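Moderator note: this is an archived Q&A kept for reference. The question asked for a predicted structure of one protein chain; the sequence and the answer are reproduced below.
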Amino acid sequence: MSPAPADVVDRPPAPTTGRTAGGPLVLFVTLGVGVVWLLGRAITRDGGDLHLRDGYVLVGGFEVVVSPGILLALVFAAAGVLLGPPAARRLSWRWLLCGSAGAAAGWSVALALNGGWSRLAYPMASKHEYVHDVGRVDGIGSFIATFTDSVPADSADPWVTHVAGHPPGALLSFVLLERIGLGGSGWAAVLCIAGGALTVPAVLVTVRAVADESAARAVAPFAVLFPGAVWIATSADAFFAGVTAWGVALLALAAVRGPSRAGRLQALAGGLLLGLSLFLSYGLTAAGLIALGVVLVRTRELGRGGVLRILTAAAVGVLLVSAVFTAAGYWWFEGIAVVGQRVRDGAAYDDRAAQAAWFLAGNVAAGAVAAGAAVVAGLAGLRGRLRWLPLAALGGMAVSQLSGLVLGETERIWLPFLVWLLPATAFLPERSARSWLALSAALAITVEVTVRTPW
């Protein structure tokens, strides 16, 4: 996997001064989050119910909990801020990918340990989560064929909330984990942590393919100390993010290689993963914008014919996965229609729909907190070919907003899109990078200490 040739890299060098337009944008977004918080509190005090578990932006009420476990996160943050940037510059590419994945896993675990070791597995043991329904699955074929029958809330034996809200591939992942002897909430948490951690090398590989290696190395420390890691160790959306991210990364590599046999095989593999993601979460349909973007940015080198061949190979992969589920008896379009009705029939929907205007802003505010100040600052400097990754991710989140079915909890739900905002940090001024990195880590620790999130 060689980097893109120098003659096709159009990412301008990042400014070296400490001044950036990112500062005013961060201030504006921070004030916006504050206003959303105040409005959310006012709605709740007036008798409205946002169903955010006493939260007004993020899910979870305000309660300061500081345990000895937070010392690990503080040490990890200090090491990441001081040692992360030079390590990202000096490590070999292969070691950077491996090290960044391991460090990202360590960061998410360190944050969660503020609540003790039980905090890692506790969220996955909830009565609303996938592990709860694993024991209901006997034969995989019959499970897929009859999955939709148990989605409606008034069905004879409805699936729990998160199972019903996703295609069968989500629960099937945890069923297969149990079938290989790794059952229970502990191993489910390991799968989520691994999925979230593996998004980091996938993003770096993609940034290198779209722009260049120096950009990927600049992004690496921010991808490790990502504030959204608060929800990675304890949320299945982190696993979904990992599958999707590697689908995109393989497409980006295929676009660099071109429509050769090897390039088409990489595109096919990427399509298979992206196809699988469609059966993990309906919302990941919008991730197709990111997948398209990493190929279309190379139209100049590939030509229209080359772009078409790469995308065709990827489409074959998506269709193969879809064909397997369809042949097993699950029709995706019927599934999403039934899920939409279950959401609308849910206890929280009417209350949240009554505050739909607030949730348009609340979703963005929660996403901004999970993305962090460094990402927001970097968005102010987007330019060149690399800008299309964050812009495509923002487009995916806009599609999610327009669906009308995502009302809150976007700090978790949007993880598969938020990781694609991280490339914006490549445009932060080099001299202020450590300061932005420290702010990212501080935000993550602050959220972990002060918000009693269920994830």
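Archived answer notes: Residues 299-327 form the longest helix (29 residues).
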